[in-house]
Fold:
Amino acid sequence: MNRHSQTQRGTFWLPIPFLAAVFVAIASSPSKANTFGTLYISTNTTLTDNHEGDVVITTDNITLDCGGHVISADLPVGILVQDRSNVTIRNCEVSGFTRGVLVLNSIGNTLLANTANHNDYGFALAFASGNQLIGNTANNNSFAGFGPGRSVGNTFSANTANLNGTNGFEIHLYSDRNVFSENTANNNGAAGFGLGSSSNNHLAGDIANGNNGSGFGLSQSNSNILEDNTAIRNAFAGFALGESSSNTLLSNRAKNNLAGFYLTSSSFNTLESNDGTPNTGVDAYQSGGTGNVSTDNKFKTTDGF
Structure:
């Protein structure tokens, strides 16, 4: 059965599929995982082989170390962390799923050095808070690489999201107070970092180059801080704000985009010490907003400022 007939794309609630698979109750650590079916992880586990099927974490305070092995199948979720806390998932490669890794309604978990390529979505978070995603890679997924939705207070550091079908990082549905630092999002089909209806996030030291939309795009997102980020050769703007207010853009670089900084219907934003030159169209543009403040920026061509 094609995975698109099993789940509705765009929703975050995904039931655990009922499969004719063995239940794995692991009594010691490390232990060898089965290679087929649904794998239920209930204690510290290190995989010693590739696994064809999905993986479900059933207990708090444990670690799954895939040791670089591949988890693959045509199923809704590759690794499911649901209603769990203090779980570590590391060194896993997940491929072929609707959502490679899904952290759902879970607090204080860590995803470290995992790869989620060739899924629909790489890493998805829903109703998740206080989780850390460090050094993960999400490339060549059909839609977004990383997708926190309705998720608050998570940390994304040194992750890579390249060549995905839509956004590299899709921060949406009231995902607030998250921190993004030193991540890379290049050559994605839409934005490198796309914020929608999400506020009070902090993006610092991130790179978004060569994306088919904007490097950093904010829509109806307020009171975010973007500082020391780089956006080069994006098809539209380096930094684009639409219907977004009270954001701070500080010491960012936007070069060789169509537009450097592009504000529409956005008010009371602060642009300070940004380098927005050269760009092929305009370095800075604003329309339809009020009360925006531009201080000590390097802009050669402007429209509306």
Residues 1-33 have pLDDT under 50 and may be disordered.
